[in-house]
């Protein structure tokens, strides 16, 4: 870790402290925690310095994301949303829009990404939310579900149809016609502030379409998801690190049948596989971040691979950690209990395990 | 902001020969299939939108351009002609700059 990352990491460790369990049980992050991270630019550390952001590399952001993920997957989810929103703006916005929005996202305003709908999950070509030009303004109508970080978001980035093409629309939370309803009791990342967001004939200035809109829906989604995937993948590395720490410590301290748990071979195998899972996930994420930082075309596939491998490893690793801790980890709020629930959702978001498999198979078929 | 004239995509040969030749080499190396400059890359049995992202990254790195905003349309990457035309247009410094 370089110095800036190490300093930020210890600041987050101090900020989260031992409160992640409490936030998980309450299903909510304290507003000041999100605001503090936002104001420090730590929710989206890759925002370039020319826009007032930290300007970190993908590799540094990844290490930081893993650290946050090892403490609290809900905070890490909020980071993923903010980073994805910032990346979408950086890629899609015109220069004036980028100069207006990115400094805000680098210093305190928070954003959430609203793509999914009741009938459009894996298949985003089925979105029905529509934005239309109406005189010199825009009208947005539709309903989005599972919007992470909606609880605290000042802005929503909404995927919508615009004529034959698509658009990402920037919507202030306070615009008339925007209604945010918290989703109760998600399986994991419980404090990440998921909500359903409705847009009823929301009237917006013409400049609210990123880059004037009219892009293809699939390219818009792929663009945003590329950042989301690498962020989730590093978050899974964090989940695995928390599991290695908890399982390793417990297996050394707890005795049964006259010796430490870790000295029973079947338990030792769990530890070996858990550590292997953490290492594999770390390497595949490092590779994806290197591709990102080098501007390599392999980036796109490497990102899907990192997300796919890390989420699968996190699910298996978290299950092994719960097994090693047994009743000691079998309570809501415990790091391995959270890891177990949080990891499973990582196989669903930003392209499910099956969707990643299809993309990776496509990659193989297009090459060989 | 881009103007509506930016949206017009040439249906005929576009861009410099050198760019076209380089793109054909890239496509052939990447897909191990021969392509022509007017072939529709995304027609059925063709390439995915994930591959379109790869093309974006390749064009940006190879030609030192930034493909942002409205230019990020699948239509701009549908054929080698269109990509070469896009490269030509973005290599001309845009009025006001493109923020890079
Ligand atoms: C914790 C969490 C946070 C989220 N945050 C956000 C957010 O911030 N913004 C947002 O827009 N959305 C968000 N989502 C929604 C998420 O993007 C979707 O859940 C995801 O895209 C999957 O869609 P779905 O749940 O409708 O499942 P479906 O698309 O209905 O899929 C159901 C199952 O079928 C499989 N499947 C579907 N199609 C195929 C196929 N062609 N081949 C093989 N298998 C297939 C899937 O892999 C899955 O296993 C979040 C979801 C969760 C759980």
UniProtKB/TrEMBL annotation, chain A:
Signal peptide span: none
Task: Write the record's keywords in alphabetical order, separated by commas.
Answer: FAD, Flavoprotein, Oxidoreductase
Residues covered by the Acyl-CoA dehydrogenase/oxidase C-terminal domain: 221-364
Record keyword Chloroplast present: no
Q: Where is the Acyl-CoA dehydrogenase/oxidase N-terminal domain?
A: 15-109
Q: Which cofactor does it need?
A: FAD
Give residue ranges for domain Acyl-CoA oxidase/dehydrogenase middle.
112-202
Q: Which InterPro entries match?
A: Acyl-CoA_Oxase/DH_mid-dom, Acyl-CoA_Oxase/DH_mid-dom_sf, AcylCo_DH-like_C, AcylCo_DH/oxidase_C, AcylCoA_DH/ox_N, AcylCoA_DH/ox_N_sf, AcylCoA_DH/oxidase_NM_dom_sf
Does this UniProt record's set of keywords contain tRNA-binding?
no
Q: Which domain of life is it from?
A: Bacteria
User: In the record, what terms sit under GO molecular function?
Assistant: acyl-CoA dehydrogenase activity; flavin adenine dinucleotide binding
Q: Which SUPFAM superfamilies match?
A: Acyl-CoA dehydrogenase C-terminal domain-like, Acyl-CoA dehydrogenase NM domain-like
> What is an annotated GO biological process for this record, any one?
butyrate catabolic process
Membership in a protein family: Belongs to the acyl-CoA dehydrogenase family.
* Annotated protein name in UniProt: Acyl-CoA dehydrogenase
TrEMBL record, chain B:
PROSITE patterns for the chain: CARRIER
Superkingdom: Bacteria
Question: Where is each Carrier domain found?
Answer: 10-91
User: Pfam families given for it?
Assistant: PP-binding (PF00550)
Indicate what this protein is called per its UniProt record: Methoxymalonate biosynthesis protein
What organism, scientifically named, is this protein from? Answer: Micromonospora rosaria
């Amino acid at each position: 870790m370089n110095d800036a990352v190490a300093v930020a990491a210890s600041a987050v460790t101090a900020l989260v402290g031992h409160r992640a369990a409490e936030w998980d049980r309450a299903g909510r992050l304290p507003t000041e925690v999100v605001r503090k991270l936002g104001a420090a630019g730590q929710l989206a550390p890759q925002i370039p310095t020319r826009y007032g952001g930290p300007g970190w590399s993908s590799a540094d952001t990844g290490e930081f994301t893993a650290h946050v993920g090892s403490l609290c997957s809900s905070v890490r989810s909020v980071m993923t949303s903010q980073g994805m929103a910032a990346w979408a703006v950086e890629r899609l916005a015109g220069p004036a829009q980028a100069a207006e929005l990115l400094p805000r996202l680098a210093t305190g305003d928070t954003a959430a990404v609203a793509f999914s709908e009741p009938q459009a999950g894996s298949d985003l070509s089925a979105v029905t939310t529509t934005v239309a030009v109406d005189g010199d303004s825009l009208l947005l109508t539709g309903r989005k579900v599972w919007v992470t970080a909606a609880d605290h978001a000042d802005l929503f980035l909404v995927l919508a149809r615009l004529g034959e093409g698509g658009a990402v629309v920037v919507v202030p939370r306070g615009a008339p016609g925007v209604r945010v309803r918290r989703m109760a009791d998600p399986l994991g990342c419980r404090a990440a502030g998921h909500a359903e967001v409705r847009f009823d004939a929301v009237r917006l200035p013409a400049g609210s379409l990123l880059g004037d809109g009219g892009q293809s829906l699939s390219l818009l989604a792929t663009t945003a998801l590329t950042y989301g995937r690498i962020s989730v993948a590093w978050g899974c590395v964090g989940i695995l690190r928390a599991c290695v720490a908890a399982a390793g410590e417990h297996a050394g301290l707890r005795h049964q049948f006259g010796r430490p748990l870790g000295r029973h071979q079947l338990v030792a195998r769990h530890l070996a596989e858990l550590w292997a899972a953490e290492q594999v996930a770390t390497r595949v994420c490092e590779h994806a971040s290197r591709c990102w930082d080098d501007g390599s075309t392999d980036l796109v596939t490497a990102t899907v691979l990192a997300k796919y491998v890390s989420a699968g490893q996190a699910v298996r690793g978290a299950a092994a950690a719960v097994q090693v801790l047994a009743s000691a980890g079998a309570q809501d709020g415990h790091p391995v209990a959270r890891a177990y629930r949080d990891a499973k959702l990582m196989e669903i978001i930003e392209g499910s395990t099956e969707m990643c498999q299809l993309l990776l198979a496509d990659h193989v078929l297009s090459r060989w | 902001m881009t103007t509506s004239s930016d949206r017009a995509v040439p249906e005929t040969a576009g861009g410099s020969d050198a760019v076209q030749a380089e793109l054909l080499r890239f496509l052939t190396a990447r897909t191990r299939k021969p392509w022509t400059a007017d072939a529709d890359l995304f027609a059925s049995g063709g390439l995915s939108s994930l591959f379109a992202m790869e093309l974006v990254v390749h064009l940006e790195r190879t030609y030192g351009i930034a493909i942002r905003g409205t230019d990020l349309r699948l239509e701009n990457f549908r054929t080698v002609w269109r990509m070469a035309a896009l490269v030509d247009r973005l290599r001309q410094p845009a009025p006001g700059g493109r923020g890079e």
